[in-house]
Amino acid sequence: MRAMDFELSPKARDHRDRLQEFMEARVYPAEPVYAAWRAENDPHALPPVVEELKAEARERGLWNLFLPDVSGLSNLEYATLAELTGRSPDLAPEAVNCAAPDTGNMEVLHMFGTDEQKERWLRPLLDGEIRSAFAMTEPEVASSDATNITTSIVRDGDEYVINGRKWFITGAADERCKIFIVMGKTDPDGPAHRQQSQVLVPRDAPGVTVVRHLPVFGYQDQHGHSEILFEDVRVPVSNLVAAEGDGFMIAQARLGPGRIHHCMRALGMAERALELMCRRALSREAFGGPLARQGVVREQIAESRMAIEQARLLTLKTAWLIDRHGAKGARTEIAAIKVVVPRIAHQVLDRAIQVHGAAGVSDDTPLAAMYSWVRAMRIFDGPDEVHVRTVARQELRRHEN
Ligand SMILES: Cc1cc2nc3c(=O)[nH]c(=O)nc-3n(C[C@H](O)[C@H](O)[C@H](O)COP(=O)(O)OP(=O)(O)OC[C@H]3O[C@@H](n4cnc5c(N)ncnc54)[C@H](O)[C@@H]3O)c2cc1C
């Protein structure tokens, strides 16, 4: 077995340096511009600065970094870059065309799409011309167990007819979102993991209604987390992704890389929080000196640094395993980091907010929004408990006779 080596390759270092420069020169200065524009406009309207950043990132060769077959970067190499983008989560991932849920949807189309599906949907997604959503979760059933999904996909001649209600579908409020990948059941009486299929549903298909956009701790994401009703929606059978019954398998294939990408970005949020915490502690005076002189604050800073380093090492190991053995071979580690990283990022953000006092809960710093996001991360792409179950199962298996 080759030794794990987390030294950055020359290619990754070059990308990191250029991305860092882009973040400092363009992305951080765009944050207040983005926030001010949104404060004055519909929460789901697109601030012009987003497309400006995309154009500039592409020109700089910082584009589609997430997809190894396109970027030539391994998952390990991408980890450092994704972490950097996580420092400005509203702007940087999208600027470099590496934002969820498009990344997962592009991976699905790349892996399973027909030539026609790739031409119609993957190409404009890779070009950043459109956006997309992945519709699996349903309000009426516990969707962390995907076998519960009830949306029906019924074949009728050359078409599929789709009926069901989804919610928390990220991206559906954005006017650029043109395509949904919808998970439903084509064979409700089949074996539990072969009942599901995924179909491509254009957003403007008759029978699709975007009902409302759900807030996360009161925040309305620009792209939206939407409730969507599908009523007798018809799509051609050529819109099926892979084969009937492959829906569960595709969901697994999609969520593996998606989960690690979320973790990489969460590390970036934790790093930025720690940086802000230190700066604040050094500059804010209370009880005769800077906060940074208080032992209790120093301890929180040290605990945060130690926890981030542990979380990063496990994330890098997981990326390394995916590069060698695929997402399936790294299943246990992916489950583990999906629990560990949001938990640690959440703790670090909590401490950073505390050190900032009232400013920490305001929107004068990015801390409160990041805090709400990493808290939600402990639920989306599978709640902690489901991943803990996977880790326990693998651990026990090693000791069974
Ligand atoms: C911000 C955000 C964005 C999202 N984006 C999308 C999206 O784009 N597309 C999409 O399809 N979905 C999306 N989701 C939905 C998300 O993936 C689901 O909420 C998640 O899978 C959990 O499903 P559920 O809400 O139905 O919870 P349930 O399945 O009802 O679970 C509720 C709770 O039960 C507990 N639980 C569940 N299973 C176990 C177990 N085995 N052992 C012990 N306890 C357990 C956990 O504490 C869990 O949180 C998003 C959610 C959020 C918050």
Can you count the helices?
A: 13
Query: Could you please say which CATH topology of the largest domain applies here?
Result: Butyryl-CoA Dehydrogenase, subunit A, domain 3
Strand order of the largest sheet: 1-4-5-8
- Poorly predicted segments: none
Based on secondary structure, the structural category is alpha+beta
Largest sheet, if any? 4 strands, mixed
Indicate the overall shape: globular
Notes on the structure:
By secondary structure, the chain is of the alpha+beta class. It has 3 domains: 10-112, Acyl-CoA dehydrogenase/oxidase, N-terminal domain (Butyryl-Coa Dehydrogenase, subunit A, domain 1, Orthogonal Bundle); 130-241, Butyryl-CoA Dehydrogenase, subunit A, domain 2 (Beta Barrel); 248-398, Butyryl-CoA Dehydrogenase, subunit A, domain 3, CATH 1.20.140.10. It has 13 helices and 10 strands. The chain has helices at residues 10-40, 48-59, 68-71, 75-86, 92-95, 102-112, 115-126, 247-283, 295-329, 331-356, 358-361, 367-377, 384-397, and strands spanning 131-135, 152-156, 159-170, 177-185, 196-202, 208-213, 225-236, 240-241, 285-286, 289-290. The strands form 3 sheets. The chain has a 4-stranded mixed β-sheet with strand order 1-4-5-8. It has a 4-stranded antiparallel β-sheet with strand order 2-3-7-6, with no helix packed on it. Strand 2 (152-156) and strand 3 (159-170) form a beta hairpin. Helix 1 packs antiparallel against helix 2 and helix 6 (102-112) runs antiparallel to helix 8. It is globular and about 80 Å long. It starts with 9 loop residues before the first helix and ends with a helix. The mean pLDDT is 96. Flavin-adenine dinucleotide is lined by residues 101, 134-137, 142-144, 168-170, 216, 225, 376, 379-383, 385-386, 389.
